[in-house]
From TrEMBL:
PANTHER family recorded: ANTI-SIGMA-F FACTOR RSBW, ANTI-SIGMA-F FACTOR RSBW-RELATED
CDD domains: HATPase_RsbW-like (cd16936)
Native organism: Nocardioides nanhaiensis
InterPro entries tied to this protein: Anti-sigma-factor_SerPK, HATPase_C_sf
Protein name: ATP-binding protein
Length: 334
């Protein structure tokens, strides 16, 4: 079984804690990291318990990072900032009444294992840990330690800042990309956010081991305004809410943004190569995602250069093109 596995969706009941622990332990053993299983199981129990008690559905767990430095991530739909161990915990002193909202009793022992101990136990089971907040909710993560320690690793909250400002006073070029498939476009936005978080957390937790991750994280961050504000993400969200399968996106682009988008296309190919070689534990793009993203980025750059539009419908049936000029994966992340 491949190490690059999609996230595991968890149910609303405490059984989800047991399922998450077993799934994470299985993934670590699969990659030969038996040394991390104990700390990973304990930290996972705490994060999933917190998500069940204080987060919002849907809740999922996954493995990110690399085989050398795997990372446990628990996502829920709440954007509420988690309380770090060094901060006053408003939930301190809660009793078992807090369990009333959980469905079923199967797996309750797993919930009670960590209930009430806060995120301090995660900090002791981790080399590094924190939370990353985005528009879809939050991911609370940790890189498991080889053993449970007495000292608590310092948690870090990321992702709360707004989009990067526009560069200078340059007036953007405005153009229209017609008949964009809404579902494919929103999948592109989600993939970018997930990849940006991946390299950001890899740089945050292990910058010395992966210096390129910091460079990639900075570049992805510089594209935040472009992808969220300038390439029509809000328009696509409105089209989805209205039930429209396609929509015309009015976008704007500056010269600096054009160069960044060209580089983004190369980096998406590079990230896929890492995933397929299992150097990153993320899931690579599907051929359909790759085909659409190549068309959309190329279409924006074509029109910005004054060339004519090429409709998605005319190439949608073609197989995804292979990477052009893809750098060697061996020159990468380490």
């Amino acid at each position: 079984m491949t190490l690059n596995r999609p996230a595991l969706a968890l149910g609303n009941g405490p059984r989800g804690v047991h399922d998450a622990r077993r799934w994470i332990a299985g993934g670590l053993r699969e990659m030969g990291r038996e040394d991390l299983v104990e700390a990973a199981e304990i930290g996972t129990s705490e994060l999933v318990t917190n998500a069940l008690l204080h987060g919002e559905a849907p809740i999922s767990v996954t493995l990110g990072g690399t085989p050398e430095h795997p990372r446990v991530e628990v996502r829920d739909a709440s954007r509420e900032r988690p309380v770090l161990p060094t901060e006053p915990d408003p939930a301190a002193g809660h009793d078992s009444a807090g369990l009333d909202g959980l469905e079923g009793l199967d797996g309750l022992d797993d919930v009670l294992l960590t209930f009430g101990r806060g995120l301090g136990i995660v900090a002791r089971a981790a080399q590094a840990w924190g939370a990353d907040i985005d528009e879809d909710g939050k991911v609370v993560w940790f890189t498991p330690a080889a053993e449970i320690g007495e000292e608590e690793a310092v948690g870090t909250i990321t992702g709360e800042s707004g989009p990067s400002p526009a560069s200078g006073d340059e007036q953007p070029t405005e153009l229209v990309v017609e008949q964009v498939p809404v579902a494919a476009y929103l999948s592109f936005q989600r993939h970018y956010r997930e990849l940006r978080r991946e390299v950001r957390l890899l740089a945050l937790a292990h910058e010395q081991e992966y210096p390129l991750a910091k460079t990639l994280s900075d570049l992805f961050g510089s594209l935040e305004r472009v992808l969220r504000d300038d390439l029509g993400a809000d328009q696509a969200e409105r089209a989805r809410a209205q039930g429209r399968p396609t929509t015309d996106l009015r976008v704007r682009l500056r010269k600096d943004d054009e160069r960044r988008l060209e580089r983004l296309s190369e980096l998406l190919d590079l990230a896929d190569a890492f995933c397929r070689e299992e150097r990153l534990l993320s899931v690579a793009r599907t051929p359909e995602q790759e085909s659409f993203q190549r068309w959309f980025l190329a279409e924006v750059l074509r029109q910005a250069a004054g060339e004519g539009a090429v409709a998605w419908e005319t190439i949608a049936s073609r197989p995804a093109a292979g990477p052009q000029g893809l750098p060697s994966a061996r020159s990468s992340v380490s």
